[in-house]
Amino acid sequence: MTSNVNPTVRRRRLGQELRKLREDKGMTAEQVADRLLVSQSKISRLENGRRSISQRDVRDLCGVYEVEDQRIVDSLMQMAKDSRQQGWWHAFGDVPYSVYIGLETDAASLRVYDPQVVPGLLQTRQYAETLISGALPETAAAEIEKRVQVRMRRQERISAEENPLRLWTVMDEAALRRIVGDKSLMRDQLDHLVEQSRLPHVTVQVIPFDMGAHPGLNGQYAILEFPDAADSSVVYIEGVTSDLYLEKPNDVQKYSVMYEHLRAQALNVDQSRQFIAEIAKKYT
């Protein structure tokens, strides 16, 4: 078992290994919790990678699962140690969606549907600042600036010369029509969107209003896929107070099929680029 460089992904991989050991032993999370005198929710959080895990936790769990191969125990202990390291985003303090950032940082590809705004990875700094300020009207200016800086740092995955993030985004026409800031800002944003869409690893498609009802009307979501086959894909749904991460194969499959329908109903790449450019001309 090898560990990944990213602490978030390491923690997730470790949780998957611990879940497999429990299932191989034929135990439920409740039974393990009873043995260790902890809550069942703690075992669940450790297995889904949402909670930091200590080497002591790993040692105790390996004891319950009667793991006899010391090499496996040592490997899991090292993964636990590595998973407690800090990613680049920790330098910005408490970031609400740090789990997502950790996953995005290590993802090989990202499929995004956004019905309301331009996706964060394709936003200009001015657009991001105005958008975040509007969405969080009671947030201090320093916090707004921190979030903007984090968003700009995330965009380095798009501009990276080696192994850039493969981004496929489908957005609703509303995201292009909603004037964030003023018309000049929107013109710059849409021009930037057209420019980014020409990158070989970035695909942008638009669903125009006249397309009518489509599978994306339930709201925004993203599907993250990873370079290592051992790391299963994740569907991310952003919430106001908490976020949702779906990892069960059946859930990921349903959202993937829905995304294929979105791509099929959207304008193709060239049509989308022309559509965005035409709207940009109106913001003069």
UniProtKB/TrEMBL annotation:
It comes from the Bacteria. InterPro entries: Cro/C1-type_HTH (IPR001387), DUF5753 (IPR043917), Lambda_DNA-bd_dom_sf (IPR010982). Residues 18-72 form the HTH cro/C1-type domain. SMART domains: HTH_XRE. This is Helix-turn-helix domain-containing protein. It comes from Streptomyces phaeoluteigriseus. The lineage of its organism: Bacteria, Bacillati, Actinomycetota, Actinomycetes, Kitasatosporales.
